[in-house]
């Protein structure tokens, strides 16, 4: 998923605050193409990032989140959607309705969380600006200003507290149920995502 703005393009990585960002971009910036219903035509709306050719002169930016909270959010979302795992995606290929079995499956495949992130942002190398969902309001304003995107920043202030309140419970219950052994194993097996995007093992 992507939103094309005046000078930038927001690349939506699933379960990293993208819906919140897109909702507020509508009121704070100028959208030039929405969900590929405009000049780019229809695309794979769930797992797609524009090529450099499609970007033209627009600068890409995206948001990511702590790998373990992301994994819990992904599992919560897909189980709520009746286990609608996208089997063409490596990490979702090992999906399981049981949270702890899913964690065990992910541990067995080193760096698959990094590879999932890379599906969306990897092609841009170091030429994409990455923000952290944990500081979504402040970092979104800073990124847009740094990239010279015309915005109404005052309409974004204090909006970060509105994020997905109703869906935190399922994600948090999964996180709270993790043993220290599971946390350590996830960190060790998925170390590339932690190191590349500068996250520690802890998320609280």
Description:
This protein is of the alpha/beta class and 204 residues long. The chain has one domain. The chain has ten helices and five strands, in the order ββαβαβααααβαααα. α3 (67-80) packs across α8. The longest helix has 14 residues, at 67-80. The protein starts with a strand and ends in an 8-residue tail after the last helix. Mean pLDDT is 88; it is low at 41-47.
Offer a few descriptive terms.
204 residues; alpha/beta; 44% helix
Spatial separation of the terminal alpha carbons: 28 Å
- Overall tally of domains: 1
The chain-level structural class is alpha/beta
Number of helices: 10
Strand order, largest beta sheet: 3-1-2-4-5
Main beta-sheet strand count, sense and barrel state: 5 strands, mixed
What would you report as the Rg, rounded to the nearest angstrom? 17 Å
Query: Average pLDDT across residues?
Result: 88
**Approximate strand percentage:** 5-15%
Number of beta strands:
5
Order of helices and strands: EEHEHEHHHHEHHHH
pLDDT < 50 runs, ≥5 residues? 41-47
Give me the oligomer status: single chain
Shape, principal axes of CA atoms: globular
Helix content: 40-55%
């Amino acid at each position: 998923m992507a939103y094309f703005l005046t000078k930038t393009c927001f690349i939506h990585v699933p379960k990293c605050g993208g819906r919140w960002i897109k909702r507020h971009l509508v009121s704070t910036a100028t959208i030039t193409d929405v969900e590929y219903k405009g000049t780019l035509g229809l695309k794979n709306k769930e797992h797609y990032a524009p090529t450099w050719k499609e970007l033209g002169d627009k600068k890409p930016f995206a948001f990511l989140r702590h790998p373990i909270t992301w994994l819990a959010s992904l599992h919560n979302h897909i189980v709520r959607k009746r286990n609608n795992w996208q089997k063409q995606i490596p990490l979702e290929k090992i999906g399981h309705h049981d949270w702890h079995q899913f964690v065990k499956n992910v541990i067995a495949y080193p760096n698959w969380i990094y590879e999932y992130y890379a599906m969306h942002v990897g092609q841009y190398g170091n030429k994409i600006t990455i923000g952290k969902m944990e500081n979504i309001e402040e970092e979104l304003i800073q990124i847009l200003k740094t990239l010279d995107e015309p915005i109404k920043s005052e309409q974004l202030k204090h909006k970060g507290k509105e994020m997905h309140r109703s869906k935190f419970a399922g994600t948090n219950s999964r996180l709270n149920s993790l043993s220290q052994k599971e946390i350590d194993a996830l960190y060790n097996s998925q170390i590339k995502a932690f190191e590349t995007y500068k996250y520690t093992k802890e998320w609280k």
